[in-house]
């Protein structure tokens, strides 16, 4: 009986550690976007790997130079090969006379010397898309739509994106305002607000869904609606509480027994 009690005690402690790990990481996974964890990077041993360049876009400057945007940064091509002039991921490139713009997660980068050097003109927000026209430029970030009226003017906010933001791919002004092509559909800026444009057949339901997504939604509670995710949070926090309180209820009597045994 004493042997089983010892095994039960230490296996219970090991299980407590696993319950804490699963509960805490579960809460973090459910709210990873709200907490911005998907944009946080950490350096841990064993996780280092080779990152492929993953080229996105190419552009030619007014001087005839070739620029390439990749997951590792912006590269400038020349007679001696390619060299990186802007570190960090970059997607779309845009050319406006002697100026070159690059959309990056850190903001909208501007180069006035053909890609040799860069400065961030819209820092703090991921740049998504850009439209350049004589006398006017439009830029879309993860948060809103910006406008620059003069070639060397400042960027001013026209409107915030709806909800928690949309994944904009293209921006184009038309006679009725500004159109935004996004992963979520077509949007239009009108009367200072960005609203979705209903497209014929745009609400057609998908014929199937990946089983992995269903399992993930069941695990996080999203399958039953956003309200049920709060229930999952409460369950996870309860497991954390019961685990810590259980260890405490075991540790206090154990410590007293050890102390009394010393003074005998």
How would you sum up this structure in a few lines?
The protein is of the alpha+beta class. The protein has helices spanning 2-30, 211-220, 226-262; strands at 57-60, 66-70, 73-78, 81-87, 93-96, 99-104, 107-111, 119-123, 127-133, 136-141, 144-148, 156-160, 168-174, 177-182, 185-190, 193-197. The protein folds into two domains: 53-194, Methylamine Dehydrogenase, Chain H (7 Propeller), CATH 2.130.10; 210-261.
Verbal overview:
The chain contains three helices and 16 strands. The protein starts with a helix and ends with a helix. It is of the alpha+beta class. The model has no long low-confidence stretch (mean pLDDT 84). It has helices spanning 2-30, 211-220, 226-262; strands spanning 57-60, 66-70, 73-78, 81-87, 93-96, 99-104, 107-111, 119-123, 127-133, 136-141, 144-148, 156-160, 168-174, 177-182, 185-190, 193-197. The chain is elongated, with a radius of gyration of 27 Å. 16% of the residues are buried. The strands form four sheets. It has a four-stranded antiparallel sheet, with no helix packed on it. A four-stranded antiparallel sheet has the order 5-6-7-8, with no helix packed on it. Helix 1 packs antiparallel against helix 3. The protein has two domains: 53-194, 7 Propeller (Methylamine Dehydrogenase, Chain H), CATH 2.130.10; 210-261.
């Amino acid at each position: 009986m004493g042997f089983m009690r010892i095994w039960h005690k230490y296996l219970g402690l090991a299980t407590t550690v696993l319950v804490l790990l699963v509960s805490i990481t579960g809460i973090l996974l459910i709210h990873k976007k709200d907490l911005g964890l998907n944009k946080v990077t950490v350096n841990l041993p064993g996780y280092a790997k080779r990152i492929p360049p993953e080229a996105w876009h190419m552009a030619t400057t007014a001087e005839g130079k070739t620029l390439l945007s990749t997951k590792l940064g912006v590269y400038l091509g020349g007679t001696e090969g390619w060299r990186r002039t802007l570190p960090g991921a970059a997607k779309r490139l845009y050319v406006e006379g002697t100026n070159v713009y690059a959309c990056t997660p850190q903001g909208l980068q501007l180069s006035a010397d053909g890609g040799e050097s860069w400065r961030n003109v819209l820092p703090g927000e991921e740049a998504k898309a850009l439209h350049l026209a004589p006398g006017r430029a439009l830029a879309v970030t993860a948060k809103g739509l910006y406008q620059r009226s003069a070639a060397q003017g400042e960027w001013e906010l026209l409107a915030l994106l709806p909800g928690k933001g949309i994944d904009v791919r293209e921006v184009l002004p038309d006679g009725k305002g500004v159109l935004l092509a996004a992963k979520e559909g077509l949007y239009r800026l009108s009367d200072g607000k960005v609203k979705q444009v209903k497209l014929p057949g745009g609400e057609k339901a998908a014929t199937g869904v990946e089983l992995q997504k269903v399992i993930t939604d069941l695990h996080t509670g999203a399958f039953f609606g956003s309200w049920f995710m709060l229930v999952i949070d409460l369950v996870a926090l309860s497991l954390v509480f019961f685990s810590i309180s259980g260890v405490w209820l075991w540790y206090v009597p154990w410590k007293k027994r050890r102390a009394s045994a010393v003074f005998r």
